[in-house]
Amino acid sequence: MVTTSTATALIGDPYVADCPTRRILDRIGDRWTVLIIGVLGGGDARFSQLLRRIEGISQKMLTQTLRGLERDGLITRTVYPEVPVRVVYSLTTAGRTLLGPLQALQEWSIEHLGDVVASQSAYDKND
C-alpha cells in the first residue's frame, strides 16, 4: 500500500499486491536490466554496443528495457545531432546506486554456480 503525506513522501510495501514497489522490483530484478546496468556501470554506451555486449538480447527487448529504465529515471538517453545521429545511454545518479546491489547478486551467482548446478542435477534425477 502506498500512503502519502503532505510532504509527498511515499511509503511502499512490496508485499501488498497493488503497491508500486512491485513494479520497481520487477524492473530491477529483470535479467536484462541487471545486464544493462552492469554494462553502463563501466561507462556510457551506444545501442549497438549494448546489443553486442549482452549476448542473447534481441533489439526489441533491448529497446523496451532501455525505454523502461529511462522512464524509471535509471538511465538517460542523449541524442547528439551529428550525421549520422549518435545516441548514448548512461546511468543516472539513481541508476548508479544499483551498481553495488546488482554487483553483489552477480558475484553471488558466480560464486554459487557449481552448487546450484549440482542441486538442479540432483533434483532432476529424483523427478
From TrEMBL:
Keywords: DNA-binding, Transcription, Transcription regulation
Pfam families associated with the record: HxlR (PF01638)
Annotated SUPFAM superfamilies: Winged helix' DNA-binding domain (SSF46785)
GO molecular function terms attached to this record: DNA binding
Keyword tRNA processing: no
Residue ranges of the TM segments: none
Signal peptide: none
Domain of life of the native organism: Bacteria
Name this protein carries in UniProt: HxlR family transcriptional regulator
